[in-house]
Amino acid sequence: MVENSKTYDLEDRTLEFAKAVRVFVRKLKLDVANIEDAKQVVRSSGSVGVNYIEANDALSKKDFVMRIKICRKEAKESRYWLRLIEAFGDANLDDERLALAGEVQELMNIFGAIIQKSK
């Protein structure tokens, strides 16, 4: 499993990602499409961290790996919704969206590495 010092670092990182998504969503122009996409990205971004916490309390190695795979899946979903959200020409918002997409890609890479090392 994962060492405790690293456990809390990644828990904090996933929490900060979910918070950053919420800050970003509050700045969006909310048309019909953005409202629905924003709801989805808020849900999936929070699920990344929640599932990581669950992985840390896994009952077995198999359970741990399954929950980490769910973390990666939720991160992929977050990336998808971030790609759909429209910034309506606001360069600052678009930069923020791209930064969030970069962070979620890094999280996906981390979860992928954990899965590989756990095999």
Q: Tell me the number of strands.
A: 0
Low-pLDDT stretches: 1-6
Count the DSSP helices.
Answer: 4
Mean pLDDT: 93
Percent of sequence in beta strands: under 5%
Query: What is the approximate shape?
Result: elongated
Q: Which percent bin holds the helix content?
A: over 70%
Descriptive tags:
0% strand; de novo design (two linked rop proteins); elongated; disordered N terminus; mainly alpha; single chain
Could you characterize the architecture of this molecule?
The chain contains 4 helices and no strands. It has about 120 residues and is mostly helical. The protein has one domain: 23S rRNA-intervening sequence (de novo design (two linked rop proteins)). The termini are close together. The relative contact order is 0.16. The N terminus is likely disordered.
Structure described in brief:
With 119 residues, this protein is mainly alpha-helical.
SSE map:
Blueprint (H helix, E strand, L loop, with lengths): L3 H24 L4 H25 L4 H24 L6 H28 L1
